[in-house]
C-alpha cells in the first residue's frame, strides 16, 4: 500500500476505494459507511485496500 493510498484512506475513504475498485458495490458501501460515520468508512477503506 502506497503512502498516497494510506493518506486517502484516512482523509477521503470513498475516493481511495474508488481509485482501486471503481464504481461498484464496494464503493457504495464505502460511501454509506462514511456517511454513517467517518471511522467506519476509514476502517472499511483500509480493509478493502489492504490486499
Automatic annotation (TrEMBL):
Q: Does the keyword Manganese apply?
A: no
Which key words tag this protein in UniProt? Membrane, Transmembrane, Transmembrane helix
Transmembrane spans: 26-48
A Pfam family that this protein carries is: Pmp3
Location of this chain's protein in the cell: Membrane
Instruction: Enumerate the PANTHER family for this protein.
Output: HYDROPHOBIC PROTEIN RCI2 LOW TEMPERATURE AND SALT RESPONSIVE PROTEIN LTI6 -RELATED, UPF0057 MEMBRANE PROTEIN ZK632.10-RELATED
Family assignment from sequence similarity: Belongs to the UPF0057 (PMP3) family.
Protein name per its UniProtKB record: YqaE/Pmp3 family membrane protein
Lineage runs: Bacteria, Pseudomonadati, Bacteroidota, Flavobacteriia, Flavobacteriales
